[in-house]
Amino acid sequence: MMKEWATVISWQNGVALLRCEPHSGCGSCNARSGCGSHLLNELGPESEHQLKIAISQPLEPGQKVEVGISEGSLLRSASLVYLTPLAGLIAGGALFQALFITDAFTALGSILGAGLGFLLARTLAARIEGKSDYQPTVLQIGLPPTAIRIQQE
Asked: In this structure, what DSSP letter does residue 102 have?
């Protein structure tokens, strides 16, 4: 199970809107200055990811929630998104190479195959979108921010 902590933005009628902050690289070491993944993340724009999760327990804004998704569904989703267009690109290029023999038609076949692969991936993703295996689930709920009080002396 892949796990990540998220912050509650809002909760209304059993649906929570959560914000997940991206982390650089794998996050398993302190070699941030020499890590290629950290440097690549510094080049990109700062972004945050939002997701909606159905949860019956009322949540407060600012509350932390641990969400998880199974590795199998994550790998199947990644395969669908990356391998389907790649397979279309290779198959289209090979088919047009066999039919027309010129490089220009091979390139055109590759582009058409990749486009068809993207359309197939989009269609398949729409079919599996609502399935529960592909939805994140709430694993833990942290204390609301109002429950923690610091007493000063």
From this structure: S
